[in-house]
Structure formats: structure tokens, C-alpha cells
Amino acid sequence: MAVLVNKNTKIMVQGITGTQASFHIQRAMKYGTRIVAGVVPNKNESSYLGVPLFGTVQEAKDKTGAEASIVFVPAKYAKTAILEAIHAGLKLVVVITSGIPVSDMMEIKHELQQSSTILIGPNTPGVITPQEAYMGIFPDSIHKGGNIGIISRSSTLTYEVVLEINKAGFGESTVIGLGDDVILGTSFVEIIKQFNNDEDTKAIILIGGIGGNYEIEAAEFYMAQNKKKPIIALILDDPTPLSDNKGLAPEILCRGITTAEDKKSILRKAGMIVVDDINLLKDELMQL
Q1: pTM score over 0.90
Q2: Contact of 208 with 185, CB cutoff 8 Å
């Protein structure tokens, strides 16, 4: 079953003719991902890489039935592209673009609240359901199908976790990179809900960091649930105290949580299994 994306998901690509998009989309199509449309404003060609081109997201959706989009648009144009996808009513938008201004993301977040669109990213490796389909830039060869769902705020650590659990004999139902930027389109809570409703997911691995409230919100949500799947949490240590990070907007600073140990303590109290070392994942998974 998996979550968000599978072999039947019809996907469009905004910015498909860019160098990065071209490379990754060809790989995705070879993997089996259904890329049904490309969106290029002021297009001069009717197709690219064998994919039909359209001038707008709405046209691409109407003509192909696409329900999801991958955004490879440069940061200065990303807000326009993302809002276009939201306003067209797409179910899922995966934003690979990094460096989108905080003010743009705050406007996008406001629009998301008025819609049913799920936005993954920005600055995300994407979403992958192994052996079915993926949206993004994942090194697809390292993934294998299984029943462990992964939600992460760290691209690099995600790959390490995947390799570790595969080596231990497990596999993934779906892997979702929430993104490495300050303001994210989707929270841990939303994806935990998705995994809780997925019959193919037996346990969840949450990979977080010390910035922002995302992990705290997940802990509060998890503590309040009666029926829930086990979550193993791994928090990325960062030697920089949160209060010293000038890149964070005041409204998204943590509630006094300044270290990885603070977050680990809260997650443990919520009932999650917290590991301090990636090498301990195997032992915890074996005990579930």
C-alpha cells in the first residue's frame, strides 16, 4: 500500500528541462515512476524526454490526470510554481529546490492551510516507495521494499539509516525526506498519521534535529494517541545552540529546547524509542 506515492501515481515535473531535473527524471522513469507531464511556461516544444509538455499546471492536470508534481524550479521562481500547483488542487507537491526565502515559504504555508495539498520540502531528497516509484533525487539503488516507514529532516542520515536497516534484513515501506530548510511544507505529525493508516508499515523511524518544533509536535501527538505504531527516533546532534542560530525566524524557534538531549528526553517521555547511535537501530527493530 505504502504512502504518498506508488506505481500508479501520475506525476508532472515543473522545470523538467533543467539539467538537474533532466538527469533525475530519466532515472525515475527507468525505475518505473509514471512521469506523465512536464510544465514549462512559454514552451517551444511539445515534448521533452518523451514526456508531453504543457504551459501550466492546470493544463497538465486536465490533459493527463496528473495528481502530483515534482518542483525543480530555481528558488527565485519557486513560490510562483508551488502556488500554481496548490491552486490547481494537486494532492502532492515535492519541492527539490533549496534556498527559498523564508517570507516566500510563509506565504506558501498560508496557502497550504487553505488547501488539501501535501507539500514535501523544500530542499528535500523526495519520497520513495521502493520497487514502485519515487519523486526526487534519492539514490534509488540503496532502497529495498519492507515494512519500516522513514521520516527524516536529514538527507545524509536518511541514506545511512536505509543502508543500516537493509543490512539488518529489514526494508522500507516508504521513505520521506521532509526537507533540510527552516520552514517545511509538512510536519512529522502529518506523515505519522499517514503511516498509522498504512497496512504495509509496521514501525516508523523518525530522524530529526534540534532546530524548530517539529519533533516536539510529533511527541505531543504520539503521546495523545491510543492506537499507534512503534516509533524509533534518532536526533541529529548539532553543537550550535538554537538561540545562537541567526538563520531561524523568531516565530519558529523551539520552546526553550536548545540541545539534542532536550529533544531526546521529550521523545522518550512520549513513549518513543530513542537511539543515540545509528548502529543501535538493528537491535531495537529486532525487539519490535
Answers
A1: yes
A2: no
